[in-house]
TrEMBL record:
UniProt keyword Mitochondrion, yes or no: yes
Main subcellular localisation: mitochondrion
Known function: Metal-dependent single-stranded DNA (ssDNA) exonuclease involved in mitochondrial genome maintenance.
Record-given protein name: Mitochondrial genome maintenance exonuclease 1
Alphabetic keyword roster: Exonuclease, Hydrolase, Mitochondrion, Nuclease
Family annotation (Gene3D superfamilies): 3.90.320.10
Family: Belongs to the MGME1 family.
Record EC number: 3.1.-.-
Matching InterPro entries: PDDEXK-like_dom_sf (IPR011604)
Active-site residue list: 172, 185, 187
Signal peptide coordinates: none
Length: 269
């Protein structure tokens, strides 16, 4: 069914796509053909988000493991890939290749500076003493109201990996948000986002990090919630999209399916 839907999207969209977009969509089509093979991964699809035992004897060697980002990019749903590529094509038509590249560079630099400021604050700097470049001032203004609800910092910009499921990632923050221990992911945005289902793969990324972090936390201190924080380039107050225990568990299951699809794709090459 999934592959049939993908073929239908291709039929209607491909004539309007250039060579690079067609190649990307065909890659998605190839990936989706592995959906029927996901069940072959067995117990990994039922792997728990949290750990209840007090020991972990699995070797902690994260060399040559795929990253969460890489896995999500490789298994991106075809609709998301098409939307992203269509937006890119629209912006290139508007700004030109050079103008689009410059816009992307400035956006990345502003976001990186904002992330650095957040890191400074979480590491103990006084918020009013933190200076950001002019290009990041609106982002910084956007996120500051959220930061007052973040405390009891456990990890900032830390590397984590899952010794059983074999992946790694870099966590923005593990801390208490509004009284609950959470994985927090900071995401800059040029549009207002008010629902998790408008966040593409951001919630899956948070769930993946939570599962990996929990492997290294004691059973009585497990992460059961997550937060995707959308920080706005326009300067309006950031949106904290909280994933409660039920919601985080749901996205963890979605992450396991994407991980299984990625592993199946790797096995077929």
């Amino acid at each position: 069914m999934w592959l049939q839907r993908t073929s239908l999207v291709l039929k209607h969209c491909q004539p309007a796509l250039n060579g690079r977009i067609s190649w990307a969509v065909c890659s998605c089509k190839r990936l989706l053909s592995t959906e029927d093979d996901v069940s072959a991964l067995g117990d990994k699809l039922n792997f728990p988000l949290t750990r209840e035992d007090g020991s972990d004897n699995v070797s902690h060697n994260d060399e040559k493991l795929p990253s969460v980002t890489r896995i999500l990019q490789a298994t991106q749903p075809v609709e998301s890939a098409l939307a992203l590529l269509a937006w890119k094509r629209k912006m290139i038509a508007k700004l030109g290749e050079k103008g689009f590249a410059e816009m992307q560079k400035k956006t990345l630099e502003a976001g990186s500076a904002c992330h650095s400021a957040i890191e400074q604050y979480l590491n103990g700097d006084v918020i009013d003493d933190i200076i950001v470049p002019e290009s990041s001032e609106k982002l910084w203004s956007s996120v500051k109201p959220i930061l007052k609800d973040v405390d009891k910092i456990e990890m900032v910009e830390g590397k984590c990996f899952h010794p059983h499921l074999k992946y790694y990632g870099f966590v923005d923050c593990v801390a208490t948000y509004c009284g609950n221990l959470c994985v927090i992911d900071w995401k800059t945005s040029k549009r207002t986002v008010t629902k998790l289902n408008y966040c593409y793969d951001d919630p899956l990324q948070v769930a993946a990090y939570a599962g990996a972090v929990n492997c290294n936390l004691s059973p009585d201190k497990q992460v059961k919630q997550g937060v995707v924080v959308k920080i706005y380039h326009q300067g309006n107050p950031a949106t904290a999209l909280v994933m409660n225990e039920f919601t985080l568990e749901y996205y963890w299951r979605q992450w396991l399916r994407r991980l299984a699809a990625y592993n199946s794709l790797q096995d077929s090459t």
